[in-house]
Amino acid sequence: MIELKLIGLPKNEPYSAYKKCSPVTIRELKLMCDIYQKYYANTHYEIFERDFLEKTGVFLIMEPKTKKIVGFSTVMERDFVVNGRAQHAFFSGDTIIEKEY
Length: 101
Description:
Elements: E1 2-4, E2 15-20, H1 26-39, H2 45-53, E3 57-62, E4 69-82, E5 85-97
Antiparallel strand pairs: 1-2, 2-3, 3-4, 4-5
């Protein structure tokens, strides 16, 4: 996992860590789904999991003292061809951060 921190960031501020989707644990996925369900209606774990598994990575937003997930932003990488030229793109998926953060 790649941890991104800004220099001079107060130690009590949340930070982000990028992780490929494949090593995300069921526990982490359920925590992300719990956050998602607080802010979106008419969803359930199976929908969230299916959508998540189509992504390639996720930025986890972590509370520094407890390392608890307090938000996340999913990312999808894709290679494709446009007018005969190979292209590589990043697409942003769901981004949710707990209201108190």
